[in-house]
Structures are given as C-alpha cells and as structure tokens.
Amino acid sequence: MDESFSKLKGRFLVMDGPDGAGKTTQLDLLTEALQQAGLDVARAVDPGGTPAGQQIRDILLHHEDLDLAPMCETMLFMASRAQLVAEVIRPASEGGRVVLCDRFISATLAYQGALGIEPQAIIVAADMAIEKLWPDLTLVLDLPSGEGLSRVGKVRDRMESRTDDYHEQVRRNFQALPGCYPAPVALVDAAGTPEQVHERIVKALESHIQKI
Question: At 111, which helix (H) or strand (E)?
C-alpha cells in the first residue's frame, strides 16, 4: 500500500458477501495491511459489536426455536446497528480511525431481501437507524453460494441453515447491490487463494481512493 492510503483515515469500510466467502480472513489481511501503512484500525461486527448488539445477534442467529417474521428480523438488525453506530463506528471514525465492519446494511438487502422485504423499505429503515452514516465503501466478496456453504461446514446458524434456493437469491441480491445501494459498492471475486483475493481488495481500494 502506498502513501495514498492515508486518505482512508477516518473512513468507514464494510466487508460483506455470502456465507463462506472469506470475510473474516480478508478483514484480518486488510487490517494488517492498513496498520502497516500507518493507519489506526477499528474493527466492528454486525449484528453485534456492543453488549446490546450481542444479545440481539444471539436472537437472530442462534434461536432456531423463534419463528421471526421477515420484518421483525429486519428491524432487529437495524436496532443492533443503531447501537453499533452510536457506540463504535461514529466515535472511531470521528477519531480518525479506519473502521472495518463485518457486514452492514448490504447484508440486510441480500438476506432479508431474499425473504421478500423490498429494498427501498430496508434503505428507509436503515437511514433512520444509522443516522445517515453510510459506509464510504462496501467490499462485497462474490462466490457461488454452494462453494461458500461447503466452507461453512455442518454447524450452521439460522441464516446459514436456510435452503439452497434462498442462498442463491442472497448471492444474486449481493450482485445487484451496485444498482440500488445508496453508497459505493465494489464487487470482488472471492475465488482463489486468500492472497489473490486480498490483492483484488487492495486494487478496489486503490480505485476508490482515486475518487476521494
């Protein structure tokens, strides 16, 4: 990374994509690269990332006994994000740190969108929950859903346990984000080695920096 990456100071970046696409690995690699470039990095996770958010995350992902309506699911995600923005993301960004968040509104457009919630309804609810603090860039790792789920393994949460058709729709929704998301999105091919994917992410960031 060259000196131009100093322009990412105080920026809010999101890593998203279908289950098993490699978000955690790529967030770790990107964190290391940004730190080596002299930037202070704050990590966030959505849903969760705060004491209140963690309890909401547990409801959303680990209570298979709860039959949550799609809109209830959507609003629980928004509640977690409202707290995450207030407690973690906004203070870190205003303090000059680069914020790297594991999932954000993009995930709701993909996952709850696959349950039938209209994109515009999600965006309107999100705008209120996050008080208009949209990411400066969302990096979407694109991988066939079957390949991603094979990486996840047999122990799966509520979202991961849904049907193959559902996960196919989730991927299509992620691929459609550049046409409907109210903030910049870069689709990144997640096939190949972690190092190859990381190089693609760096190139996407370089392209974004040129527009700042």
Answer: helix 105-111
State the pLDDT at residue 19.
Answer: 86
| Token reading at 4 | 């131009």
Nearest to 33, CA basis, from 100, 91, 106: 100
Instruction: Provide the pLDDT for residue 114.
Output: 95
CA 56 to chain centre: 17
Task: Return the pLDDT at 65.
Answer: 75
CB-side neighbour CA atoms (13 Å) of 38: 7
Residue 187: beta bridge partners?
140
Which structure tokens are listed for 91?
């203070």
pLDDT of residue 148: 59
Running along the chain, 212 residues long, what does each successive block of 10 average in pLDDT?
Answer: 83 94 95 95 97 93 82 96 98 98 97 95 97 97 77 63 86 96 97 96 95 84
**pTM > 0.85: yes or no:** yes
d(CA 52, CA 8): 29
Name the one residue in this structure whose structure tokens are 């969108």: 113
Look up tokens 């550049």; give the residue.
178
185 token code pair = 């999105």
Cα 148 from Cα 138, distance rounded (Å): 19
The reply to whether omega before 135 is within 30° of 0 (cis) is no
How is residue 80 written in tokens? 């977690």
Q: What b/e sequence results for 19-48 when a residue is b if at least 16 CB atoms lie within 10 Å of its CB, and e otherwise?
A: bbbbbeebbebbbebbeebebebbbbbbbb
